[in-house]
Amino acid sequence: MKATADIVDNSGVQPNMFLTNLPVELQECIIVQGPRYDVRPAQRFTSRIPNVRRAVFAKMHVVYSAVSSWEQPAKQSATAARTTSFQTQVASHGFSDDFDHRELAVGVRKQILLVVPGDAGSKTLGAGHYLQFDVPAVLPVGVFNSIMRFGARRRLSHAKILDMPNIRRVEWLAEKDDPNWTTSRTVKLLLEFPQLTELSLVIDKEQDFGYFSKSLSKLHNLRKLSLNVRRWYPESFRPQIDEFGPVIAGNPMLTHLELFQSCCSRVSLSRMFEQVPSNRPLALEHLGISEIVRDTDAILPHLGSLKSIHVRSCCSSTIFMLMLQKRIFPPVVKTERADSQFIDYISSHPTITSLSVHSLYDDTAGTMILETMARNGETLEYFSTCASSLGRCLNKVRNELLLLQCTHLRQLVLRYDNILFYSGTEINISSTFLAPQELGLTVIARMQQSLTLVITDMVGFKACLKMCQNSSNPLLRDLSGRIVFERPT
């Protein structure tokens, strides 16, 4: 297997306090002296570890010891003796073909460290360093589950000790190897937060959606709920985000709802909202939605109070067409696909205050977007778009004049990355890099002095700043004090 390597400094080795608190029966598979280090990137690849069959797959690390004195020989031998059975199981899967027979296997919740004493790595790494990279590995199921349970109990007990009555927002990452009992215990913990009103859930596609929905339906005070199913999956295995319908129905005070799942053409919004009483629809103020192309009109009764919309889609989405028919015009509009339905929608929009177009578009679409902005020039305060697309549009004098009509614009964001969706996979692609003079800075500099220019690429930011500072144009020099860098979100 091919993996990226990092050189890790061995100075200041300290005991891992989490390991020292583990039960005695688990310490047989744990080495206490885990290095505490700062990782520095190294341009090195390795393929020494075979892609073995495994009982458990998680994010693993392998650490080669570059010097034999990293651990005292007596303690080294004693630890090796205690882990003989574990070594045997690992070796039976062919994992240790390339390693010294004295290797020590160490398991820590979703991590495994293989420490190879001796000077095997010294020729490559030099004394006092380690080589770290991600590999698949075998961890005994019993030990793995015991560590998981202990970790969950420990975190839950610590949470009970703390006084957390003011927690209002929780972000929860549910990974694919988290068993159902971790879900139920986490929800039990959430129920102890009386002020909790916001939940952001990033869930792996291999999780049990039905069990998750049943557990989360015990929460009834949420006002903001974000459900994001990550990872691509084949057509034969496609969990449906609409199984979270009971969670939505159980929180009638929801005002913010995000439903992000890539390539879920079979998702039914009718099923998701069927448990919400028709005479008491939700009063949604924000909606984030992606890849839902069936029964889209089922959500329309809940959009009467909508103030912002965020649409992700790799194909033509019907949500804009339906909102146009119902004359639903939230002032904040964000899309990651500038298709004809989106253009038609914003062309009829009466009062846009914030517009985000995070996709590449041609000059024709760009002109129509700028026409919409000019028509909303008295209300539009925020515009975020692809740097390369806007730069090309501003090569035309007509488009320059349209942008200059946005007299109330307070923030212009030029993004150097575009979120595209292809075959259900979210792909981040850098925009074509343009020189500062190609971004239309001379046009932007002619806009009102209250405008802030935000650039999401550090190289582009420095280039634009340098050009403006060294320019003989006083408008560009003035703009240099209003250019800021911001990491893309």
- The average pLDDT score comes to 69
Query: Would you give the CATH topology of the largest domain?
Result: Leucine-rich repeat, LRR (right-handed beta-alpha superhelix)
Shape: globular
What's the domain count?
Answer: 3
Cα-atom Rg, whole angstroms? 27 Å
Number of strands: 20
Q: Which structural class is indicated by helix and strand composition?
A: alpha/beta
The proportion of residues in beta strands is 15-25%
Distance between the termini: 32 Å
Low-confidence stretches: 1-140, 418-432
> Strand order across the biggest sheet?
7-8-9-10-11-12-13-14-15-16-19-20
**Helix tally?**
18
- The appropriate CATH architecture of the largest domain is Alpha-Beta Horseshoe
Q: Helical residue percent? A: 25-40%
Largest sheet: 12 strands, parallel
As an assembly, this protein is single chain
Would you state the CATH class of the largest domain?
Alpha Beta
InterPro entries: LRR_dom_sf
Commentary on this structure:
The protein is α/β, with parallel strands linked by helices and 489 residues long. It folds into 3 domains: 139 residues, no CATH class; 144 residues, Leucine-rich repeat, LRR (right-handed beta-alpha superhelix) (Alpha-Beta Horseshoe); 163 residues, Alpha-Beta Horseshoe (Leucine-rich repeat, LRR (right-handed beta-alpha superhelix)). It contains 18 helices and 20 strands. The strands form 3 sheets. Strands 7-8-9-10-11-12-13-14-15-16-19-20 form a 12-stranded parallel beta sheet. Helix 12 links the parallel strand 13 and strand 14. The longest helix has 21 residues. It is globular and about 65 Å long. The protein starts with a strand and ends with a strand. The N terminus is likely disordered.
